[in-house]
Amino acid sequence: MDESLLEPQAKCQPGSKELGQNSMQTTKKIPADIEDGSEITKRRITNDYSSYKSLSTEPGKENIRLLQVLPPKDVDNDDEELVCVLSDPIAKTGRIAYIALSYCWGDMTRQRSISLVHHSFDQPDDSIVQEPEDGVQLVAVNVTSKKTFNVTESLYQALKSLRKSKAQIEERFPLFDYQPLWVDALCINQSDIEERNSQVSIMRSTYSQALLVLIWMGEDEDVVRGLHIIMGLVRVLSERYGDEFDILNPTDEQLGTFLSSGGYNFGNENLGPGGCLQVLGRFFNNPYFRRIWVLQEASCNPQLTFIHITNAQVPLSYILVAERCYQLRETLYFTGKPTLPIAWGSLLRKHFLHMRDFQQKNGEKKPHNRKACSLLGRLYNLFEHTYTEFEATDPRDKLYALLDFALETQNGTRSREELAPDYNKTVTEVFSNFTVWCIRYSGNLDVLGLLASGPRRILPDDLVRFMVHESPTQSYLDARSHPSWAVWPTGGGIWTQGSLAKEPDFDLATQRQVRLFQLATHPVIKIPEDLTHRLVSLGGIRIGKVKSVFQMPLICIQTTVENSLLSKKWGSEVLEKDMKTDRALPAMVLSHPYNRGVFKGGIPLLWSMIRKNESPAIIIDDEEGGTLSSQEWLGRQGGRYNGKDELMFRDFLETLLLSPTYRGENSLDHQDDAVPDGPWSDKTMATSIAMCWGENDPHFMFPPPRIAEILKGELFERPVPQPKLFPLQCRGVGKCFFITEDERMGLCSPDVRSGDVIIALFGSRLPFVVRPVRQETKFEGDDWCFEGSEELKDHLYRFMGECYLHEQMTSSFFKDQGMESREMEVFNLC
């Protein structure tokens, strides 16, 4: 397609503010029957908000409502009706002392009823008064006007606990003599979209200005036991190291003494370090730690934030000590058990230290300078590190909850206006706009790599692959409703585990500026209005075409070391003892892309299927209409490898390890009497590879004979103190093996099919795979027929995601192969 068919916009530079009309405009609504997250964004708690007085939504003049839980008439009756008083809107100033509650909404279908009383400050003083038994007036409020209000079970239990612990909280925090609260579900009119937009935009200041933040995680056994262990852990370390113990920055040596010591008496139970960590693991598995909004709520005012249960309030800083201890254990002894998301430890710990440094320097107990209280980061980086590990009731909050953390979206910036919370927009609108914003602002295409961690996209042709009783929309994303190139906010990628763009050595087309074209306003081509948001046009060149795909993704599972492996004579007593330890270790296996079945044998199975003539695992359409088995095609005489098994094996392993090696035009030169270059030249890596082979192939039957001898020697003849595990180093997890028409090996997503095109988009670190829409059996509808250019149809592509292409991942390849001189093509992604 000639570039003149499109009018290019300004080349994207880092920090560019220029926006295209096709990226930020309001689009038509997606039909309700198409999956766009419409069902999961509904507020499913029905309440009467008619008594709520309007809040000011004018920027800089916002106000809030506060809640008060009235004391029970019978202090011994936990089941007594919960009566809460909700104030009129109050000016948002620093003179208001209130507690901000941080909690998970929880299961929307589990609801409880409370009584809510709306209190107006202009009511007469002789209004009916609710009084506790001691006769002290709590607040002038007419309790006869109370209305039934539904809340989730989680909030109901939190309010009950706060009512019961009122005396204890007052004793510890004397300012709270009547416990005014800010609770989002009650203090925001959830039926008023404009108010929700406004209150979400000031959420950070609401929590920052609170005199106290209480975190509610429930009071089940795992929470209570976990808090007892955490308080005991801090006590033990404080007693042992005194002033040398820095609770915000404990040393590995200090934490290591806890891990290596004997039993501890915590919470009336005696546990060793392993038992303590098991309790902590269950505590960290609490859903609270994976809700996106609470990350902001807990970090706004960290030194005055406490985990609350009825009988205790535990400082948030204690949690970070336990998290560090748990992470250290994982470093020393890999167990694969879940820990806190990385953002909790890294973000909150840095925030604590930043706050402490600021106070020590300025002598303030609580900094009032907003920027001084915040550690801001790049919005894209924040989203990248949170969207797969955190959840939200409304997927749009995966972005909105991060805006106050981001450098680019502070108040008054243009980016803040463009990405401001707006619950009138669909999920597709929000994240399509965000994807284009990331490209324009950063000047690179890293955001496209995030699609590797998202759910699989179901295209029109893919629907026939599912059985009749299976519904793709339950675990897959319907690409008919969401652009194939746009980020989807929920994680849950079934196979892929993270973008390859994190590899520092990959810089394929980064020396060329991103070319983002304007298609919606082209004078000749007429795109239907409801499709303009579906298209993004980028410049690049073709570098290959997919010939065959082995659609069985690589995954890691936990398994016990096989006895056949342990029967070997290891190179040292230390290694012998270590390998005889009966514990689960990660192993590489293959998984079926549809029924999720696991195929034992792992890498040896994959290699044998690729190299053996009789293997029907990869069937390739021949130009003459026949079929070729994998070995006949990959290693055939006259082909790229020309039957050189050693070189095929070298490139195979380098592909699994994502090796960026580029050897130029001489990459296949090899002398028969020399060992081919490859990852096994490193002794530790050689051991790792040998372990992987040994587990599934103890006789080393599958590797080329010469390679097998090298690996045997590295593992069984050399003393290695602690071998690394190849599956942990195999960064191709979640990807499928594929071969190009010119016999290049690579890794891709399970969505890729034969005939897909491999391209290098300008400004990208990686190659991407796209599928010509013409290749599909049918278009999605008549709207895909564009007026003004029949040729445009030949340049419409589905974006299938990033890929690894062996020896073609670096700018040196781009330069040495003369790619820079090739004519640019415009790829219209839909």
Your description of this structure?
This protein has 830 residues and is an alpha+beta fold. Among the domains are: 63-216, no CATH class; 221-373, no CATH class; 554-733, no CATH class. The protein has 25 helices and 32 strands. Strands 10-7-4-3-11-6-12-15-16 form a 9-stranded mixed β-sheet, sandwiched between helices. A 5-stranded mixed beta barrel has the order 20-28-29-30-32. Helix 8 (252-260) crosses helix 11 and helix 11 packs across helix 12 (342-362). The model is unreliable at 1-11, 13-42, 124-139 and 621-626 (pLDDT under 50). Residues 19-28 have a biased composition (Polar residues). Pfam families: HET. Residues 98-297 form the Heterokaryon incompatibility domain. This is Heterokaryon incompatibility domain-containing protein.
Task: Produce the secondary structure layout.
Elements: E1 7-8, H1 21-24, E2 63-64, E3 67-69, E4 83-87, E5 90-91, E6 99-102, E7 111-119, E8 129-130, E9 139-140, E10 147-152, H2 153-164, H3 166-172, E11 180-182, H4 184-187, H5 193-201, H6 203-208, E12 212-216, H7 221-241, H8 252-260, E13 264-266, E14 269-271, H9 273-284, H10 292-300, E15 305-309, E16 312-315, H11 316-332, H12 342-362, H13 379-386, H14 397-400, H15 414-419, H16 427-442, E17 457-458, E18 477-478, E19 516-518, E20 536-550, E21 554-560, H17 563-566, H18 573-579, E22 584-591, E23 598-599, H19 602-611, E24 620-621, E25 627-628, H20 630-634, H21 645-656, H22 683-696, H23 705-716, H24 726-729, E26 736-740, E27 745-748, E28 757-761, E29 768-772, E30 796-802, E31 804-805, H25 811-816, E32 825-829
Parallel strand pairs: 4-7, 6-11, 6-12, 12-15, 17-18, 30-32
Antiparallel strand pairs: 1-19, 2-5, 3-4, 3-11, 7-10, 8-9, 13-14, 15-16, 19-20, 20-26, 20-28, 20-32, 21-22, 22-23, 24-25, 26-27, 27-31, 28-29, 29-30
Helix pairs in contact: 7-9, 7-11, 8-11, 9-11, 11-12, 22-23
